[in-house]
Amino acid sequence: KTQKLLKDYRRKVGIDVPTEKEHAAEIEEALRIGQLAMQRGVYATAVSALEKVTKWCSTNSKVGSKVFLELAMAYEAVGRTKEAYQVYKTLTECRMEDVKYNAKRLLYGMEAMQIMKDVSSDFSRTKTRNTFIDATGLDTIAQNFDDVYNTAYIDLEGGFYKKLTESVVRSNREARQILLKATGKGEVGRTRVVQALRCISRQFDESLRSENESMEEPEPTAFLNGKPIVKGASTGDLKDSMAISLGDFVLLSAEEMMQNLDGRWRLQLLADKQGDGVSFFNTSMAVQEFSIDDMTFSASGPSGLVTVQSSGRIEMEDSKRILSRSMIETSKGSGGGILDFFRVGKDSGFSAAVSRTQQIISVDSILLITKCAPGTRKGKDAEKEHYAVWRRETVDEIRP
User: Rounded to the nearest 5 degrees, what angle is found at the Cα of 40, between the Cα atoms of 37 and 43?
Assistant: First the structure.
């Protein structure tokens, strides 16, 4: 009877685990691979091997506690300090004294490292990395080469490829400066304007894809006594992983975009998706105004020989930053009553720019940059006037 009670107790507290016995071969192999990978510095391999067997292990058993201690060290080695902290913390209450002792020592080391980062402004991986880059010149290494290529669009006919390579835009900051300067014909080459927009659009797409992937809930791969190990950012300096510099693109949240969108904007230019098709609007008055308080818009601009006014409601789709309009009412400034102008096939110029469903790429205190929302246009003209650049009107410009 005593033996049975003792056996039941050992199972209850996780010292004697049937699944560890059933999968003893797999656990032993995972430990072998993990330890070998750690010795060779292939830490991600160690994590992968050990995570697969955690569902069969207990932190209180002799074998299981060893698995989790190895996994915690592998987590720490690859920079996944949040997961490492969880496992170390649990192992500090382990019933295996040797594992418990080692877990406490390793946890203390992690906490001491974090304190060093908190109290010392010089203790930063980001600063160390940037100092190295500055000293070696690696941050500007691309500028040392004469031939810089952008393979996003290549047309070998008509000398356009040569023109394109001369118009390469290398950063978001450079692209923005080009668009700020491109207020009319002759200020900036049309090809360079399109390349600037493509550069910003490409960074927007990559940032949006990363954001959406990070929001997906992956299937748990590692378990701590039957519960998934919570994944998250490092407990260290979060800026280390962001690598922010002046030239990087910053994706605003949908809420931040809507706040910045509020106000009056003047159409600066429309540009094709590729090539050198750019139309400037510096000689005409084409404006739109957004009121975020009641989610409405109004617009006024040229359409052929007449001026068209329109108004309606707006709505933002947060995950893709898509701005759509509804309940649109449009009229000709020269008279003729209410005309549903947007349903009679007009699909170019200002009227199209304020009626199409747009994806907001960037909006700040000066520029609003949009592109046609994915899948909203088809046919041979689908790539025409793909981008729109608007400039915020100042108080002095709004006054009559």
Answer: 50
